[in-house]
Amino acid sequence: MKTILHFLLDFLFPPSCPVCKAHSSENGVLCAPCWDKFNWIGDPKCASCGYPFPANLDLGLRPLCPTCATGKNVVDFLRAACVYDDASKDVMLPFKHAAALKYKNLMSRAMINSLRELKTETGDLKSEKSNVNLVVPVPLSYRRLWKRGYNQAALLARPIAKHFGVPVDVDSVLRKHRADMGHKNAKERRANIRGVFNVRRPENIKGKTILLVDDVMTTGATLYELRRVLKRAGAKKVYAVVFCRTVRAI
Predict the structure, then answer these.
(1) Which class in CATH covers the domain with range 44-245?
(2) pLDDT in tens, 161-210
(3) How far apart are CA 111 and CA 82, in angstroms?
(4) What are the residue boundaries of the structural domains of the chain, listed by start?
């Protein structure tokens, strides 16, 4: 319920859409025209990795994409809010590289919404909370963190962790510096990311279900490698959520 102060602030500084600056219901929330520009991922989709299927397909209650059907899934459970395209790119890239932090709320809210099935996946139908114990943002190397000044994944992770009522861990996993993977193919990305992560506090990881948070997933190499090292450190399950993901024909 809004206080008098909130009403006064809304009057003096009307809430606006972070993309086009048009009037919005509240700050950080997209206006209807901007909302419609995004390719939000809904059903039908892969029950494991959330890969979107054509809307006219009826694949049953728990359809699986070919990758997950063969057991080659990137993590144990993955969701993305939307497809990586021109609309999502115009939000994600400035947030990631140009400190456009005004997009944080819309991105984190969309990611939380994409996790609405998580309570069903974990079997807890009576509570909005899942069995996630820990939220871990995909870490940056110290060199890249110093250059950028912030970890965009950590900024997204905090409201997501708050939603689930669990802590954020930014200390247990370290990342070595490697060359940027922006123009590498899937095979090159897997080779480049191998061995880049190190769990320095396995006692914080052992026996826990961990939710990884990142801004975008392209080939899934980063999340796959994180899952590998976290499972080796004793993690029970490794889930992941991203704002957008690339979608290719399967």
Answers:
(1) alpha beta
(2) 999 999 999 999 999 988 776 667 777 878 889 999 999 999 999 999 99
(3) 9
(4) 1-37, 44-245
